[in-house]
Amino acid sequence: MKETDITIYPLIVRYLDGTATIRDKRRLLLWLKENPEHIKEYFLIRDIWLSTETEIEDDETDKAFVRLKSRITANPSVKKNYSFLLYACGVVACVALLLGLKNWDVFRQNIPEPDIQIVKECHLITAAGSKGRFVLPDSTVVWLNGGSRLVYPEKFSEVNRLVSIEGCGYFDVIPDEERPFIVQAGDVKLEVVGTSFNISNYTETGIVDVALLTGKVKISVPIHEEDVVMEPDHFYEYRKAEQTGVLREVDSRLYNQWINNKLVFDNRKLDEVFTVLEGWFNRKIHVSREVRQKHGVSFTVRDESIEEVLKGLSKIVPIRYTIEREEIKILPR
């Protein structure tokens, strides 16, 4: 018998006979979360407990544990017939054992049973240099740019529609006033009802920006005491390193042109430009620390090659570049 069995079986007995303390319940929750096999084992022990059909006084818990342990050993025919779905996208077992103890109905029953929900978590990933169009469970349409990841549940909850994103995406959100659409992008959280917007959250830049095309967006960021409310043609930029957030007016239509095979930069700083170009052309770009990357540049990429883009950039900002196989080096001029 494993060492964990020695400590956990008496705890389960106390939980089943209603003598478990809050501390016991917390320990049991942690144990259940550690491994799906623990959940199966809990149900097995509970079923054996039920089969005894006896009521146990508080002072008989130790004796009950001994009887329970011997019964488990003496009944090899009792099998663990509890199956759990395993999804390629990933499975998260949510055990609602301690959250809201005072209000949870299962603690008012004679034989408690953990409320286990299997949540299928889907991951949409686009490789560098590619993009894709996807439809979420609520019919919201999402475009993901190269090198991006979107995580969302197979079925949205009745409270909200929560997704998280790394990289760049354009969302056309289906209206649902009862369930706001929430996008988590690092430190930045967006809440919308029905709207269309572009969001960029490439972790290597430490920058999250949002361009709103239609509707209204509420942004929550730790650096702001109050939420930032965006209107159409507003652009919000959050810089984690500097802990700054700026809201300004733009032509927001420029920010989702990548879904039409166009890249549009509107007064964007070089550090952001090179990050986007890396994903667009699937080429690694190394930028020298001596390059001043705070220059604001505006240009559009359509069918140009990376060489043509860099040649044009070198004419408007003081940089030079070298191309060696798949790697590009940006140097000061």
- 3D shape: elongated
Rounded to the nearest angstrom, the radius of gyration is: 28 Å
* Mean pLDDT rating: 77
User: Helical stretch count?
Assistant: 6
Strand residues, percent? 25-35%
What would you call the structural class? alpha+beta
**Uncertain segments:** 52-59, 72-111
In whole angstroms, the N-to-C terminal distance is 70 Å
Largest sheet: 14 strands, mixed
What percent of the residues sit in helical stretches (DSSP H or I)?
10-25%
- Give the H and E element order: HHHHEEEEEEEEEEEEEEEHEEHEE
Number of strands: 19
Task: Describe, in plain words, how this protein is organized in 3D.
- The chain has 333 residues and is α+β, with helices and mostly antiparallel strands.
- 24% of the residues lie in helices and 34% in strands.
- Helix 2 crosses helix 3.
- The strands form 3 sheets. Strands 1, 2, 3, 4, 5, 6, 7, 8, 9, 10, 11, 12, 13 and 14 form a 14-stranded mixed beta sheet that branches.
- About 14% of the residues have low confidence.
- The protein has 6 helices and 19 strands.
- The chain starts with a helix and ends with a strand.
